# Entry
Amino acid sequence: MKPLLSAVALVAALAGSQASAHHSYAAYEMDRVLELAGVLESFEVVAPHSLIRIKTGDGRAVLMEWLAPPGLQRRGVDASMLKQGDRVVVTGNPHRDFAVNGVLNFQSVTRPSDGLTWTAARQAGSR
# Structure
C-alpha cells in the first residue's frame, strides 16, 4: 500500500498546476447562499484555496474559500485588490457546520465604496 501511495503522491507532484483539481462540495450547502456584510480582515492568496476573512457587524468571524492563486491570477485577481479594512459584502454557500466554523464557499465579493465585484460565475473584476 505504501508504494502505491508514494506513486500517487509523485504523479500528483509532477502534474503540478497542469492537473485540474477536483474535490467535493459535499461539506457545503450548495442550495443555500448567505450574504454577509463586514470589514475585511485579510485576503490571503495561498494554496490550496485563497482565503477572505471578514468580521461582520455583529462581531462574527467569517472565512471564505476562493480559488487557488493560479486560478485568481488567470482571472486578473491579485492580493492587492482587497485591502484590510475594506468594507465588503460577500455571498457564499455555507459550510454544513457554519454555525460553528463560519466557513463559506466563495460566490461573490463586492466592495460597495467603488462597486468592485468578483463573482464565481465570471471570476473577473468589474466596476
